[in-house]
Structures are given as structure tokens and as C-alpha cells.
Amino acid sequence: MTSAPPTNKAGRPRANNDSRRSSLTSREQILDAAAALFAEAGFSGTSTRAIADRVGIRQQSLYYHFAGKDEILAELLSGSVRPSIEFVSDIEARVPGEISPAGALFALASMDARTLRNTPHNIGTLYLLPEIQDPRYDAFRNQRIALRAIYGRLGAAAAVADVRATVSEDRIGVLLIQLAEVVIQLRRDEESESADDDQTIAASCLRVLGLSAAQIGAARDEAGAVTAAALLAL
Amino acid sequence: MTSAPPTNKAGRPRANNDSRRSSLTSREQILDAAAALFAEAGFSGTSTRAIADRVGIRQQSLYYHFAGKDEILAELLSGSVRPSIEFVSDIEARVPGEISPAGALFALASMDARTLRNTPHNIGTLYLLPEIQDPRYDAFRNQRIALRAIYGRLGAAAAVADVRATVSEDRIGVLLIQLAEVVIQLRRDEESESADDDQTIAASCLRVLGLSAAQIGAARDEAGAVTAAALLAL
DNA sequence: ATTATCTATAGATCTATAGATAATGC
DNA sequence: ATTATCTATAGATCTATAGATAATGC
User: Fold this and answer.
1) Is residue B165 one of the residues assigned to a domain?
2) CA B96 → CA A58, B157, B162, distances in Å?
3) Which end of chain A, N or C, is surrounded by fewer C-beta atoms within 10 Å?
4) How far apart are CA A131 and CA B37, in angstroms?
5) Going residue by residue through chain B (234 aa), what tens digit of pLDDT does each one get?
6) Does one domain contain both A134 and A36?
7) The model's pTM
8) Nearest partner of B117 among B221, B199, B14, B3, judged by Cα
9) What Å value separates CA A47 and C1' C13?
């Protein structure tokens, strides 16, 4: 008797019956509604009532799916770093045999930018919420610290001597992540976005490490090939 | 009968009388307490009660000084951009006569980094709160947009041809501000900070525009002289 | 008289638990 | 029988207003 996949049919009907016509499970509907509201109004600024209203269920019904509001946020956070984490370890394993540090960094940064750009409701804004400093979200923060460390290692390996001499590996990691996450601000400001931003951002990451235009172009070419391979491997 | 400066002596004593021994006015104490709490728990996550407790007064007494919680945030925001705005217009007026765009940008970025690093309670985190998207804080956001435009103009003027050809002035502005504000993240992560970070960050801004180490060194020297002059002029 | 607090309190939330109910699944 | 909702509701906030009070200022 393992748990059956949710069929979206059993259970008492919703009071507003129309709201059930969705291909998503109730749990997914809740996560989606919460993501939109957390991004717009913040965690504390979003009530369980507001989430339920958006889904089309009663406030109390949320507790059938999640133990509390904080579990919803935790789920959103862990779901949103997972793709990055998986991609990054695959990419780092190919360095320096299949790909140079600069190529790997280009692949990683453009992939992160792309993910942040395409994610529904600009979920990256959740990373900026003060509430995630709470120890309750340690697991998420530790994953981000791990990601930053990889950015730092790749960045330090790719940087020109001058930069490596003046900026520590830790600092490089923070700088590079910060650059990749500029996408969050761009989306927040509702500026028109285009896919070439991802490449622009990745190129900026390499430029801040002191690489020349020619070196950046080479890294971009390397990244193109390996990105396809890494995505297939997942 | 112009309003007298607050003396900190008149009025009914506080229930907890010790809390009044401060060189700050009550209004300043409230702003300071709110800044710390907003940075830590967010705007919606901070109750008027929590602010009052930290000051050592009753929750209701806040309303003698501010019409509401939102006015406290508005005051904090406008106070925190003011120094940047004043400095930046002074600096931009000296371009290109007294100083090159690269020198001005170095001066601006290192000054912003320094301000963000020294501000009490890491006030820059307030810029990241979702609540400031509310139209109520339009004045603040417009000031930031103006600041970003200046970063964009100076950055576009300083950038090498290759970068200027691929990144719009708007995007340059967003990228540069994002780099300067990495200080906010560094402080949040409680990493040990040092003053040389300001110069490192300013240098990173120029490097992302494609400048060489020699050009960055020259810009730094220019900036040193003009920063002193500009600060005196304020 | 003015200032800056206090106490009292209204009214609106907000989170979460308990238990009932209306579907489907077997 | 199981699932996914519902209704009812407790208890804890939270913001803000009204009016009293205890200082200083003149």
C-alpha cells in the first residue's frame, strides 16, 4: 500500500468547484500561489488566507498539505536550487579534462541566469527575503554556500593573475553569484528581457575576472558543447 | 514659534525610565530600532510592538512620532539614499573636465560600497524588501532609478568599445549597481569585512567594463583626489 | 501650555486544531 | 476505507484611536 499518485478526484469537492479544473495537483497549486505571493509581498506579508484564496480553497485546507506556512517556503526554496546544484556538480566533474574553468564558469553562469529568468513568478526573489536567515532554512542556505564555493573555485582558476592576487576565492564566489543574480533585479523592474541576457551575464562574469574578449568567446564556445552534454546526463 | 529642537526632557517619563538615557531623540531611537528589525525580520515581519519594545516605550507611543509603520520605513529609505544622491550629482558635474568617466565611476562605486559597509544595521538590506515595490515608496525607487541611470551613463562612457556594443546603457547601470551592492550580501553573511573591499568592488566595476589593470589603477588615483574635493563641497 | 509619554480598548486580522462531510477507490 | 475538502472556533496577535497623565517651558 504505497502512497498512490494524487488523482485530483477523490475528496470532498471544493466550495468553489471551478477552481479544481487544473492539471496541477492541489499541492502544486498551493506552491505556485505561494511563490507568486511571497515574491510580491514577502513571506510575512503573505497570509495563509491569501494563499488559499488564490488557490480557491479555504484557509484551513492548506494544513492538509503542509504543516505550516514555513514548510511551503522550505519546499519552494529547495525546489528552486535543485536544478542548479545538479547541473553544477556535473559540470565541475568535467573540469579540466573536457572543459576549461572559464568554459565551465560560462556554462554555469548562463545556465543559472537562464533558470532565474524562466522560473515562474521570479522565484529568485525568495533568496532575498530576510526570513530565510532563520535556522529553519539552513539546508537551503548551505546549498547556496556550496554553489558559491564552486563559483569561487572555478572563478579563481579562470581569473587572470592580477585578479587572483587581489581577490580571495571566497570573494570571487560572492561577486560571481551576485552578477548572475542580476536577472532577479531585471525581472523585478519589469524591463524587457531577452535570452541574450544570459550570455551577456556569463560574459560579464568572465570579464570581471580579467579575461579578454577573445578568451570569453572561446569559453562561450566550449560552454555550448558541454552544456548540451551535461543536460542530457541529468 | 518655530518648532523647538527636541530636548529629550519634556513629556511624561517612560514606564521603563532607564531607556531614556540616550543621546538620540526618541524619533531617532525609533528609526534605529526599526532599521535593525526590518533588516533582520523584514517589514511585515516586524511589529510595531517589537519596535517599541526595543526602544523601551509602549507600542502606542510610536504614533506620536510617526503616522504608521510605513512612514518609518519611508523615512529610513529616503535617509539612506540621500548621501549617495548628493555625492553622485557633485561627482557627475566634474566629468569630463576634472575627471574621466572611469575615475568618476571608481569614486562613485567605492563611495557607495563604503556607505553600505558602514551603515548601521546593514540598512542596504531594506532595498531588497518586496514591500518597497508598493507605490507608497515611489519617491525612493525613483531616486534609485536616477542613481542607476548615472551609473549607466558613466559606465557606458568608460567601457571599452566591445562592451559598449553588446550591453545597453541601461543594462550597464543595473550591472554596476548590482556589483556595488554585493556589500549587502557580504555583511549579511557576516563575513569578515575590510575597507579594501570598497576598492576591490570599484575595481570590479571597471573590469566588467573591459578596462585593463593599468586603466583601473589610473582611475583609482583620479578618484582619490576628486572624492576628497567632492566630500568637502557637500 | 506644551510635550511626550501612558492606559484602555476596539476591531481586524492571523495561524492552527478539531471534527464533520462528500467525494472516489476497492 | 481513504482522501481532500469543509465548517467552527480558539487564542494570539496586530494596528491604530481616544483620552488621561506627568513631566518641562514660560
Assistant:
1) yes
2) 62, 10, 21
3) N
4) 11
5) 444 556 678 889 999 877 776 889 999 999 999 999 999 999 999 999 999 999 999 999 999 999 999 999 999 999 998 888 888 988 999 988 899 999 999 999 999 999 999 999 999 999 999 999 999 999 999 999 999 999 999 999 999 999 999 999 999 999 999 999 999 999 998 766 666 689 999 999 999 999 999 999 999 999 998 888 877 776
6) no
7) 0.93
8) B199
9) 10
Q: What CA–CA distances, in Å, run from B101 to A202, B98, B156? A: 25, 10, 9
Task: Show the cell assigned to A139.
Answer: 539546508
CA distance A17 to chain B (A): 32
| Domain CATH for B40 | 1.10.10.60
Cell match 536577472: residue?
A183
Of A45, A204, A207, the CB nearest to B44: A45
Q: How far apart are CA B132 and CA A16, in angstroms?
A: 33
3-state secondary structure of A130: helix
Could you tell me how many helices (H) and strands (E) chain B has, helices first? Answer: 11, 0
* Amino acid present at A17: N
Q: Residue A194, class by beta-carbon neighbours within 10 Å (0-12 exposed, 13-18 middle, 19+ buried)?
A: exposed
Structural domains in chain A (count): 2
